[in-house]
Amino acid sequence: MADFMTLWTQLMKVKDSKQRFDCLESLVNKANLDIVLYKEKEEEEEQVDEPQRREREGMEEHQHHQNEEAAEELLVSGESSASASARKRKSAAVESHASTSAEQGRGVAVSRTQRQPPARATTKDNSNVQKLTSRHLACVVCHTLPLPKPTTTTKGYNMCMPCYVEIRELPKRKHQVWFSVADLNEPKEDIKLKAVLPHVFPSENKLLVKVSDHPATWIGSMDEIMKQTRNPDIRAKICYLAAGFYWKEEKDIHKAIQNLLILLQIPHRSSSHIHEHSLSMLVDMMRVSDEQAFLQVGRTARKEFERMADDIVSQPASGMEIAGMYEELKTDIEDDIKDELDCSACCNVVFEPMTLPTGHTLCSSCCIRALELTDPATGTSVAPVCPMTRFPLEDYVSWIHLRDDSEMHIENRALTCLAMQLRAGDFEARREEIEKEVEEMSSGDAQGRWFPVFVCFCAFPGLNTRLHVFEPRYRLMMRRAVQSGFRKFGMCSPCYVEQPGGAFSGLPFASIGTMLHITRQEMLPDGRSLVECIGTKRFKVLDRRMRDGYHEARIQYIEDEEMTAADKELSDTLAFSLHNRMKQIIDPSSISSLEKHFGRFPDPSTEKDVLSFWISSVLLMDIPSAQFAMLTSRSLLHRLRFLESKLDTIEQSIQSGGRGARANQQEPAGDSDDSNDPDYHPGN
User: Between these two residues, 125 and 109, which has the higher pLDDT value?
Assistant: First the structure.
């Protein structure tokens, strides 16, 4: 008995879940209790990443402190018992569990990582989607269906309401894997999952509705409830809830320990949360119990387990039996139930669904569009709210804009799977539509496609442009340009710059513009952004249209006309002359400031065209119509000659002390805006 006491003392000291399990297994073996303990599935344990491991440790520590407080209220005395019975089925059960684990490792059962959201599926992937069972859509905490009150975090994880509340109460650093700062402490039900899941998994829904009530209402018929399902995670959850009820409410530590020992005998369960918390609860109960009481309870735990779950232990479980433990998706449901999978904004089947903290779900593109609104009266951005409930969503929008690359994939995992199964045809058509749109956005061919257009000022090829984007329509435009991977948009001046005397032409923007490539985007918490771009090519507008508040255009790229040999020689001479004269009339510190804003001072030997635009930006910064004339000119020689005459005028003014002296003092246009960065144009 000395070895038994040594193991007992050791079990009270260890805190690591794996060490606790090993110590408990050695303890029941030493006492010859007829109990076969199982861990949660081992292949899932290997796939848990470091943040999840830290989270588990935090949850275990939190539960440990709660259990210690409850344990102080109990004073339970143990009873003597006879010697324990022999363990007849230990070897066979272990072999059965090992063979089952091997089958699961080959893909018979679905592991936790397989329940993670699928990447955007291809047509081939969608045609081979496996048959869904309740295991695919399980709560990420207890691994049962998140019923009857399903919730979804802003990161797309589906949970039961009780699991959400329990995990959300942990310190922030402990639940960062599943939650974001935008998740509410008081969760809202996932509207679409609540409407669909009970119909596609009716049997488990009926059982989980009963178990979700207070344990006092069903604890007396626990045997019958356990026999109504072969799902090991549901059985484990029932035992877990029963143990907590007996311990904290009934103050019956013997029945609480018995239910935990029954739980630990259930093979094929996969919830590490329930496994670790059960071990933590059991150790805390053993602290206020004694060895004899534990032995007495342990001797009856196997018999109780066989009576409640005899279908598991009667024979080794095969791969088919494991699959049969989970209810299969019921597809023959009413059309109005399937229609619940429609996006509330576009009325198409949800694609890459994003669930708001209010419980409502939209397609990702619809969600971003709905949260980037403009007040038509003032033209300013509107505080983001839920489109259905008008609940303020400032924290959610701030998190959306500032989340890192590891949080980019935030779609509702369960709804994606349900849409792919129940609305396969609609889902496939929706995906093709989205892929076609993305392909069009990322296409490098300028002919026959629509480009987004930013109407602001005259930008030039080869020069840097920095923008402070704050209007909701342009925030949406920038987001789409970046997410498509194309990262380009057109910059056009207002239409008046190309009209004599600034007359209004009736067109929304000028007919010539510059294509800008986004090199860097810095998001601000309120959705504004600081964008750095570089001009690539000039283009001519062929057609115009509106899309979600911003302009789009069909374009045709334009180039400078070919020059004769004599013109090339003359342009070389003019380029070097202009380069030297600019250095003479502008002091070095101003040159550095201009280079920071427009880019490096071009080399006249290789970048004569860029040099003409760089000097135009400096000398004509206060004359938009003149800048536009330089942009539309397709003759390099013409531009250089015009700049030469402009410099002659400036030099004469400098010599006479006139207003032209402003040229070596003036800062770049658009220096002042509320971005707190003097180098950013106001943008819109």
Answer: 125
| Whether residue 661 has pLDDT greater than 70 | no
Task: For residue 498, give the DSSP letter.
Answer: G
pLDDT tens per residue, range 269-300:
888 889 988 999 999 998 888 888 888 888 88
Spatial neighbors of 90 by CB under 8 A, at least 6 apart, are 36
Q: List all residues 6 or more positions away from 19 whose beta carbon is below 8 Å from its beta carbon.
A: none
Confirm if 106 and 114 have CB atoms less than 8 A apart. no
Rounded-to-integer distance, Cα 498 and Cα 494, Å = 8
Candidates 487, 530, 492; CA nearest to 511 is 492
Residue 423 pLDDT > 80: yes
Dist. CA 247–CA 249, nearest whole Å: 6
How far does CA 245 lie from the centroid of its chain?
36
Instruction: Give the residue-averaged pLDDT of 179-198.
Output: 89
CB 415 within 8 A of CB 361: yes
Is residue 205 within 8 Å of 231, Cβ to Cβ?
A: no
Residues 6+ apart with CB under 8 A from 562: none
Tell me which residue has tokens 């150790």. Answer: 283
Per-residue model confidence (pLDDT) at position 371: 78
Full-model pTM: 0.65
Token pair for residue 221?
A: 């018929």
353 vs 595: CA distance, rounded Å: 44
pLDDT band at 573 (very low <50, low <70, confident <90, very high): very high
SS (H, E, C) 286-328: HHHCCHHHHHHHHHHHHHHHHHHCHHHHCCCCCHHHHHCCCCE
Residue given tokens 């949660």 in the structure block: 40
Q: Quick one: which of 585, 584, 577, 580 has its CA closest to 665?
A: 585
Which residue is associated with the tokens 């442009």? 465
Indicate whether 342 pLDDT > 80: yes
Residue type, 619: L
* Amino acid found at 135: R
Pairing status of strand 488-492 against strand 450-455:
parallel
Three-state secondary structure readout of 379-438? CCECCCECCCCCCECHHHHHHHHHCCHHHCCCCCHHHHHHHHHHCHHHHHHHHHHHHHHH
CB 356 within 8 A of CB 345: no
Q: Is a pLDDT exceeding 50 seen at residue 493?
A: yes
- CA–CA distance from 540 to each of 490, 513, 514, 517 (Å)? 10, 7, 9, 17
Q: In DSSP terms, which residues pair with 158 in a beta bridge?
A: 152
Nearest to 329 by CA among 487, 205, 451, 208: 205
Tokens of 102: 């091997």
DSSP code for 660: G
Identify the DSSP state of 290: -
Q: Evaluate whether 441 touches 450 at the Cβ level (below 8 Å).
A: no
Predicted confidence band of residue 443 (pLDDT cuts 50, 70, 90): low
pLDDT reading at 159 higher than 80: yes
Which of 443, 637, 466 lies closest to 535, judged by CA? Answer: 466
- Angle subtended at Cα 325 by Cα 323 and Cα 331, rounded to the nearest 5 degrees: 75
pLDDT value, residue 200: 92
Count CB neighbours of 110 within 10 A.
18
Which SS3 state, helix, strand or coil, does residue 540 take? strand
Tell me if 211 sits within 8 A of 244, measured CB to CB: no
Does position 11 have pLDDT exceeding 70, yes or no? Answer: yes
